[in-house]
Each structure stands twice: as C-alpha cells, then as structure tokens.
What we know:
Elements (H helix, E strand, L loop, with lengths): L1 E8 L7 H17 L4 E3 L24 H13 L2 E10 L2 E10 L2 E7 L19 E4 L2 E7 L6 H5 L7 E5 L23 H13 L3 E4 L4 E6 L2 E9 L5 E4 L3 E5 L5 E8 L26
Parallel strand pairs: 1-2, 2-3, 7-8, 8-9
Antiparallel strand pairs: 1-14, 3-4, 4-5, 6-7, 9-12, 10-11, 12-13
Amino acid sequence: MSHAIAAVQIATTPFETAANLEAADDGLRRAWEHGAVLAVLPELFHSGYCPGCPYHTVAETLEGPVASWLIDRARRFGMMIAAGLVERDGEDVYNALILVDASGLLARYRKRHLVFWERRRFRPGRSQVVARTRWGRIGFAICADMLYRRVWRDYRDQVDLMVVGAAWPEFVHRSTNRPHWLLGRLGPLVGELPRLAAADLGVPVVVANQSGPTHSRVPGLPWMGFEDRFAGRSAVVDPIHGVIARAGLDAEIVVGEVNLKHREPSAWAITSPWDRGRSSIVSGL
C-alpha cells in the first residue's frame, strides 16, 4: 500500500521562533491538503541554523513549547510530523529530531556526527533510533550524518523508511555564485546521498532541507563571517524509481507516494557505496 510523504522545505530566520513556526504551520497545512500521512520539517526548524547562534538560550526539553506545538499540529492535521529542534537534557544541548503524532512523542534522535562549529554548541548523539509506527519502522538521520557509512549501516534490515532533517548549505560564494574552492563539492551531495541511501537500504528516503540565505559569525573566530545559502533540494526518494519528488532552492512543499514494504529487508540491490574502504563518502570527514 502506498502512502503520501511530504518534505516541508522552509526558509528560517535565526531565533525568530514565531515567524519560523508560522512558516512551518503553512507548510504542514499544505502537506495535509496533499494527503500526507507524514510531514518532515528541516533541522532546527524553529530556531534557524547559524554558526554563531547561542543555542543554549533556546534549548528546551521534550515537554517544552516547540514539541507541544508539533503535537498540537499532528492532532490538528491527523498526521505524523518529524522535525528538528534544539533539545536540552540537564546541562547538555543536542541537535535533535523528534517524531510525533496525535498521541504525543514517538521517537527522539540526536545528531551523531557534528561538523565544524557544531562541536562548540552541541553534544553528539550516540546511537541510531528506530520508531515502530502504524505505517512501518522509521529510522532517522540529521544533515551531515548522511556522509558517514556507519549511520546507514546501522539501519540495514531495520527500517521501512528513512527520515532526514537538514540545514545543508550550498557552499557557494554569495558575491560570485561560484562553489567554494574547498567545500563546494559538498553542496550537491544533499541531492545525491538520499538517492544512494535509498538504493542501498532498499527503502524510501525523505529529506527536508532548509532554504534561503544564511549568514553569521564563526564561533571562536569572531572576525570571520559566514555567508552562504541553503541548498534546498528536499526530496522523496524511492529505492527502485529514484527521486519521485524534489524541491528547488526556494521554500517549497514536495509530496511523493511511497510503498513502505515493497521489498524484503534482506534483498539488496547494490553494494553499499559507504563500504568501499572509507568511513565517509567524502575523505577527511
């Protein structure tokens, strides 16, 4: 049986929570209008993503207002919602992704592979998470987690669907629109990695990325500015048919019909690209 899955790609403004929730609410409503049983919001959708943001000031527990807001929307629209948020657990702050429905919290995943400045702001997660739902088993990853083979390896034969929230930059120079000399190769991967993962795991993958410009000061290097734009390209990907719905660079909702149990868990189509002697798809990470 096929189900409609939505990737809600929105442009956020750092620490403008009310405006970000309004954008998310509009996207969730549109996903509901398209009959989605699951809608996925990007990484840190409520706070925005920026290197210099003091995330500890907006971190909250899983009983906090943002999680409660998501549960309220899940009840209102009658669907599951996955979304990235800043989680506080005691003195620790995590880059987390939660799954909710009308009954409440179903799962919480913490980003395992923190990159660049993120290590100054967050604690890393330690393990994969699989949520058992009425629609099947759902696994989770956040943004740069997609680069690392062990993340996907841990989900082999364990899931029927992968959900990814991201705030993946384009890695281009704002003034010239040319790829960054060192990191420019990373931008297009947000479109390639979900397709590789879907074919590898034999299950659909949905990734919701942010859109719009991003700029901030770099933590530890206050004289250095960071200006870029998010890469967009949110997508719903099928393991057999490839990309069935993909967004562009701007805010957009994409919906795709996927069959969550069309392949036996032990049936593998290809050799994993993550198993070719490297710990990551990009050497050096």
